[in-house]
Amino acid sequence: MSIWEYANPVKFMRISGAILPWVAAGAAVCCIGGVVWGFLTPLDYRQGATVKIIFLHVPSALMAINGWLMMLVASLIWLIRRHHVSALVAKAAAPVGAVMTLIALVTGAIWGQPMWGTWWEWDPRLTSFLILFLFYLGYIALWASVEDADSAADLTSVLCLVGSVFALLSRYAVNFWNQGLHQGASLSVAPGERMSSVYKYPLYVSMLGFFLLFLALVLVRTRTEIRLRRLSALLARENRA
Amino acid sequence: MKALLIRDLRLAVRAGGGFGLALAFFLILCTLVPFGVGPEGGQLSRIAPGILWVGALLACLLSLDRIFALDHEDGSLDLLATAPLPLEGAVAIKALAHWLTTGLPLVIFAPVLGLMLHLPGPAFPWLVVSLILGTPALSMLGAFGAAMTVGLRRGGLLLSLLVLPLYIPTLIFGAEAVRRGAIAADPAPPLVFLAAITLAVLALVPFAAAAALRVNLR
């Protein structure tokens, strides 16, 4: 019994089908709960009501980065062990991650307008998120334009590896290029935290909610991809007969 | 290896196209910018480092699809893949040929365009140095992008979407070095980073590009 058994599509379909309703329900409860709870928190003495966008902004930014990280791991598994489910998971995660990046950028702009007085600033964090979004777009476009499924999986995996290095490199290169406006990390495990627990706990709930939402969407999309593969295999067999 | 390099150079020079085209594109881009932002010397000289670097980058992009596309069409790429020379070596040689026919002319031509854009005097040596250090990375990354898209029908547009984000670090450090040269600050730190990126790219990217080529030739 090893973790690789779940690379079997049949097993993956059975288990993912069983946990999907729970994950989806958890995502709905936590997302709605986190955002509503966040909405009921008191106003920040400096930021006023705009502080509440954090309950969308931080979780989506978190999932945008971790989504790419998950694609990187899935790409490595595909390149090394050639489990098809892994390649399909990477494919399924890309559009979800791209949308998370977009949500983070848009909510950041909406928050930045009253706070910084500008919708967009060429700040290192903002810029590196935009670059991450461009990498997502390139990755999705490459999946869409290669016809043979295995070649597409190989090429996108290589792109994901090279892209990860360059996304990270750009993240630190932009520090060199412009000084930041964005505040540092909102959450930290170090003592002397900067964030009041009034905001922290709803934020944790909505981070969990976004994580479950991401998981649910990726599972649904992966299941669709597996069914698509089965369908095309059936059609190919029929044509041959 | 030498034979492949000479063959590629000869093809690039005799077949026309890529060689002069990138330079002409660079010239046109640097002519268009003053039309867009106005002819005041002060403003132009402030943005000149960035314009020259972005122009060199786009001119480089223009000829990338030629690195592998022609060889893929007439089948010589398959011969290269089965040749005793490792595919990684062939990719590196092809990138070198691209650099010699596109990057090097851009480096030589850039000071002239810098003159047209009122680039401040002390920046000129740093413009040349930063381009010499940076353009090999552009060619090598371009070869990677070209290897990814070699068999595709709508490859050209996809190529730019894949390659341009990879150019960002090179562009940042290259343009920063020229800008520091222009205001008489120390341009060494960005140049060191630029050289580091180029060396890492030259050492590692041939493997990724060769892997992509093998997939596309399967």
Q: What can you see in these coordinates?
A:
- The complex is a heterodimer of chains A (241) and B (218).
- Chain A has 241 residues and is mostly helical.
- Chain A has helices at residues 9-40, 54-81, 84-116, 124-145, 149-177, 197-240.
- In chain A, helix 1 runs antiparallel to helix 6 (197-240).
- The longest helix of chain A is centred in the last third of the chain and has 44 residues, at 197-240.
- The two termini of chain A are 38 Å apart.
- The relative contact order of chain A is 0.17.
- Chain B has one domain (2-217).
- Chain B has helices spanning 2-15, 18-37, 41-62, 69-74, 76-82, 87-116, 124-148, 155-182, 188-217.
- In chain B, helix 6 packs across helix 9 (188-217) and helix 8 packs antiparallel against helix 9 (188-217).
- Chain B is elongated.
- The A-B interface holds A 131, 134-135, 137-138, 141-142, 145-146, 151, 154-155, 158-159, 161-163, 166-167, 169-170, 173-174, 176-177 and B 144, 148, 152-155, 158, 161-162, 164-166, 168-169, 172-173, 176, 190, 193, 197, 205, 208, 211-212, 215-216, 218.
- Chain A: It is a multi-pass membrane protein.
- Chain A: Residues 4-182 form the Cytochrome c assembly protein domain.
- Chain A: This is Heme exporter protein C.
- Chain A: InterPro entries: Cyt_c_assembly, Cyt_c_biogenesis_CcmC, Cyt_c_biogenesis_CcsA/CcmC.
